[in-house]
Write a structure and sequence with these properties.
472 residues; alpha+beta; four-stranded antiparallel β-sheet; 7 helices; 11 strands; rod-shaped
């Protein structure tokens, strides 16, 4: 019996709930029919036509999709919220079982023609989504909808890739002036609570500012609400893929001064690094707009790097010219000799001249045209033959011995002349080698000076241009 009573109670409750729901639906349907029976969505919802409709605007930024610097275009996903009061859409909630809010398709009621002034049309996106509007019993209307918009944005690339950008979203009525629609911002800042974080940009702030502007076409004031979106670029991607390789290329080009002159790759290394920098600079320029107002920071860095590498390659040519000074090198000019005053060069020169003093004296005294004077007469030879002496056979004939000594004297003179020629030739060769070694030593010194100079210049340029932004 007890279970039977409980079954009756539950069935009665369900029946009452169903009846109440049907009654509630009936009340909402009758209310909507009552409100829209003589409603004209084309006219402003004011009883006195001289009054302005106060429209309050609020914007929530859902996602910053992209900022195209080349096209000067910002693409965002926003939630736009409109608030106003419709004096024709009011009712007494007690007459409709306490129903205080209803939802009606927004295209069936009056809507303010609030548009984005700096919007760029993109095919596939509706201008105004037909979402429901929430209407309250006192006539307050809340109309919200999400949309993806593309807007123009003036991009300042002066400090790219460490730049901060400010893009404006200006909303206002397109046909109504300030005497018909008085537009205000709901809050001083935009709603960033549901913002999806971007991988490239960091959101700094979004301020809302109300402006009243009188355009040249019309004497009436036109109020608008402008949202200032301030963002900062995340530079890790550019540091890793552009700045760091550029620094490495410059250092490699400068370290080319450490290569030996005879390696054959000294100049080709600098040319290869120069071509690589030009390719990197071209990649960067493809991502930036063609602007004549300012050169971006990374463009200045690449430009200085290219200049440093170009000058280092030209300096390498000069150093190689000093090293390979030609088959007949001249003495080093006096104004270049101070560069040779290094302990290592001086010690090597001293060692080369003191290790063989005899050769030095021979070189200093050699003279291929030296006259040896008259030939001395042959010594008197005894007529008594000695055993095993071949000359005794020649002493029998004095004429024969005189001719022999004269022939030997001529041969000796010829041998001395040839010896002097050989010695002079070796002296000239050693002189050329010594001068060539001096030029090579000078080339090494110049190489080391250029290495320090260009390394210092590269480090200073990097510190001056990128140093202030290293911690950003």
């Amino acid at each position: 019996m007890f279970q039977r009573h409980w079954s009756i109670v539950i069935a009665a409750s369900c029946l009452l709930t169903t009846v109440f729901c049907q009654q509630q639906n009936l009340n909402e349907a009758s209310l909507i029919n009552h409100l829209l029976q003589d409603y004209t969505p084309e006219s402003r919802p004011v009883l006195d036509s001289t009054n302005a409709v106060r429209v309050t605007l609020d914007l929530a930024l859902s996602q910053l999709i992209d900022l195209d610097a080349k096209r000067q275009e910002l693409k965002t996903n926003i939630w736009l919220r409109h608030y106003w009061k419709d004096e024709y859409l009011t009712w007494n909630a007690s007459e409709y079982n306490g129903l205080s809010a209803i939802r009606i398709p927004s295209n069936q009621i009056w809507r303010p023609d609030i548009v984005l002034y700096n919007r760029r049309f993109e095919e596939g996106y509706a201008d105004t989504p037909d979402t429901n509007a929430v209407i309250y019993s006192d006539g307050s209307v809340n109309w919200n909808y999400p949309t993806t918009i593309q807007s123009s944005c003036v991009v300042d690339i002066t400090y790219f890739p460490y730049d901060k950008q400010e893009c404006l979203l200006t909303f206002g009525s397109w046909t109504y002036d300030g005497f018909a629609i008085d537009l205000y911002n709901r809050t001083a800042v935009g709603d960033l609570n549901n913002l999806i974080e971007s991988e490239e940009w960091q959101m700094l702030e979004m301020q809302a500012v109300r402006n009243v502007i009188i355009y040249g076409c019309c004497p009436e004031p036109y109020p608008d609400v402008t949202y200032h979106i301030r963002i900062k670029r995340k530079s890790l991607f550019y540091n890793f893929y552009m700045v760091a390789p550029c620094i490495v290329l410059v250092l490699l080009a400068v370290l080319g001064f450490c290569l030996p002159m005879d390696s054959g790759e000294k100049l080709s290394l600098g040319i290869t690094m120069l071509l690589s920098l030009v390719v990197f600079a071209q990649i960067v320029s493809d991502k930036l707009p063609a602007s004549s107002r300012a050169i971006p920071l990374i463009g200045q860095f690449f430009g200085i790097s290219i200049v440093v590498v170009t000058l280092s390659s030209a300096a390498t040519v000069i150093a190689m010219n000093l090293h390979f000074h030609g088959p007949m090198p001249q003495l080093i000019p006096k104004w270049l000799r101070p560069l040779l005053y290094m302990r290592r060069c001086r010690s090597n020169k001293t060692a080369s001249t003191t290790e063989n003093p005899d050769l030095k004296s021979v070189y200093e005294n050699v003279n291929p045209t030296l006259d040896l004077g008259p030939v001395k007469p042959p010594p008197k030879i005894s007529s008594t033959p000695e055993p095993n002496d071949n000359i005794t056979t020649l002493s029998k004939d004095s004429n024969t011995s005189g001719r022999i000594f004269l022939l030997l004297d001529r041969k000796l003179d010829s041998m001395i002349a040839h010896l002097k020629t050989i010695v002079a030739r070796h002296y000239r060769k050693d002189t050329r080698d010594a001068r060539s070694d001096e030029w090579k030593q000078l080339a090494i010194v110049v190489d080391r000076i250029l290495l320090g100079t260009f390394m210092f210049a590269a480090l200073v340029a990097t510190a001056v241009l990128l140093g202030p932004f290293a911690s950003m």
